[in-house]
Structures are given as structure tokens and as C-alpha cells.
Amino acid sequence: MKNSVTPLNSHSLLFLILVSTQWLFFNTAVHAKPPSKVKYSVQRLENTKMRESLVLPYAFSTDDLGLVVGVGAMASGLYQKQMTMGGTVYGGEETKGLGAGLWNYRVFDSKRFFFSAIGMMGNFPLLRAYSPLPEKYTSAPRAGSNDSSFDDFIQASGSSNWWEVSLEYVLPWGDAKEQSMARYQLAGGLLKDETEPADWNPLVTGTSIIIARQFNRYQQYINEEGELSGAVHALELGMFYDNTDFPANPSRGSSQYIAYSYNPEWLESKERWDFVEVEVSKYFSLGKSSFAKQNIIALNAWLGYSPSWEVIYDEAGNNQVINHAPFLEGATLGGMYRLRGFRQNRFHDKAVVYATAEYRMTLDYNPTENVRWLRFLNLDWFQTVLYVEGGRVSPTFHRDTLLSDWKSDVGVSLRALTAGIVVRLDFTRSKEGTSTWLMIGHPF
Q: Which residue from 398, 230, 428, 400 is spatially nearest to 334, judged by alpha carbons?
């Protein structure tokens, strides 16, 4: 079976990476990775104004969306050195949408409080949900569970909207004891002065951030059997710690995130649910080689559990889940960040475990370096990446269940640093087919 999640039709891979940057910047599922990062400003020796901006038209074609054209824009360092603003608008025969965002705005005349807001609205010809219809009993395996069929899904056209706001506080200890923001100087996209990160100790090294986030997702599917709504209006409280050498492209150090999310039964949300998660990342530098100016081993693990999740049964033994997050939140795997060889939100259950390893090679060779008409992109380097992923969702938090019958995939990626943003094109192979994801930022 072939599952081409986001097949890309283009005659030029490099051109596609560059012109698709802005649209993908806003389609990034920011809720699929720690929603916080170290606050910093970057001075590129190639651009001493400490400002980066980009305006790009783009066009691409996928099986799910058809032909899409649009334009996007971003700017950083205009009002505050660490602040970024951006927006995009796009459309096609049946696809249309717009998005806007503001990141890391310092508020309250404080040097430690930062506000971010991002949202997107869109109509799409094809939406897919691996989830049973609500308030209906089903026989095992339930749609979206670890043993579920690839063909067990609900599919329809409709809208997909999301928005969120967050307030972050940089704690006055570690590297942020005196100043909440870090400053980096880059030459050719790499740190000018590389230093070895100190030992792990949040009170002495690194940056610790408390984040309060309110996030909203809404998708709706209607077919002849009923209606499924992926409505979320949730609150999250988390703590993030990072002692890596450069948060945008780490080569040394580690980061950790722990959070609790709660969604009351209000507005369109039909269920009350909660979710606890822990994510850990670690990076090792292998130095330079004859063809790469960086060789990095990057490791990541994620563990999550929903205490509110409950299964009830009818007289025939069929089951129904109550007090659970919808298919696009909570203990979910598949898509652009975790298990990239599977459909978006392919697996969903009470608990989840996930692990991945990447080998990142930042190449000496930059084919755009002497291309005059591409200089406005500020494209500093290309990176090739090999990776393997594994994990599973589970109806229990028992170790024996979590560590058995994992889903896995392998992949290769081409990444580039352009205008201070990492763009990645991932090709991933799993037992359910081959997937292609074009996104902004490293997956971790």
C-alpha cells in the first residue's frame, strides 16, 4: 500500500524549498513540540543590521489540496530584537486560507515576560480523522488505536482552524540570571565563537522558562453516519529548560519540557480531559569532516498520559471512550513531527511513548552561495539528515504494553538555514507507505 501523505510536484527541489517557506511557517503544528524556546537575538556577520525579512510568493501541488498559490512575509528585529512577525494568504480551486503570528513580544515593561499569538483559518477539500464517531460503541480495535487499520478513518471536506496565545516568564537563574535574552553571532549560519555547554544544572546553567498557554483547535467532519468535531479550548502550564549551544540548530547540550494540559467542557468542547507530558532532547557534536562543517547526533524522547481517559462498555462488550482529548491532541502520533512516515494524527490513545535519533550533517558545499538572484534569501547552509523513529500509543501506562509492538519508520531529510529559519524537507518510509513533509524548524 502506498501512502503519499504530502506528495510534492516540482521540477526543482531547491526552488520548492525556498518558495514554500512562508506557507509552511504558519502550518507548523506548534502544539506538537515544546511551545517554548530560549529568547535570543542573532547577529549575522553577513547582515549587521540585526534584522531579517522575507517576502515570497509560492506554489505547490499535493494530492490532498490540489494546486495552491500564495504569498507570505516575515520580519524579525523590527521593534524588538527578539520579536518576529509574519503572515500568509493562499488559495486554490477548493483550498483557501490565511494566517498571522506574533512571537516573543516583551510586555509589561518587563525584560522577562514574553507574549506570542498565532492563528490560522482555512478550508480544505480533504480532511481525514482516525477516530470513531462520538457517543457510539465500537468493537476492538478502535479507530486510531495502535492495532487499528490504516483504512479505518472518517474523511470529508471542511474547515480547519486553530489559534493560540501564550505568556512566558524567563526565570532569573542559570544563564538568564542577569539577562533574560541570549545573544548569538553567526558566520555562515554557525556560531562564531563555539563554547562547550556547562553541566546540567538549571540553577547555574542554561535557561528555564515557565509558560502559560491557551490553545484552540477546530476541525469538523460530516458524513452519512454522523458528525465528528475536533474541538479544543484548552489551557496548558509547562516548564522548559534548555542548555544547548544554539537553540535554532543545537549541536551540544540538552533540553527538557514538562507540562500539564486541561480542557474543560465548555464552548464547542464536548469532553473534559487532561494530559501530562515529558519531552527530553540531547545533542552531541562529532566535529567536522572532509565534507561537513558540522556532524551532530540528535536524540529525542516523549512520554505522555491522560489521567481523565476512560473506557466504558455496553452489554455486548463494545467500548466507548469518554473524557478524552480529540484525535488531534493528547497522546497522538503520526505526521510532521512524530512518526513522520504515517498520516497526521494516525494513532491516538490514553498513553504514548516515542523516541527518535537523527544524524545531522551541515555541508561545506552551498550551491546558492554565488547565485546572485538568490542572495536575498540569506541562505547560509544546507544540511542532510538520516533518522529513525519508533513509538506507540497504548490504552494503559503499563511498561510491558508501552514497550511492545512499536510502530517505526526511517527517513532522510534536506534542511537549509534561510533568513535565520531552518527549513526541512523530510522523506520517510513506514509500513503504511512513503510520506513527504515540508516544514519549518527541526522536529526537535
A: 428
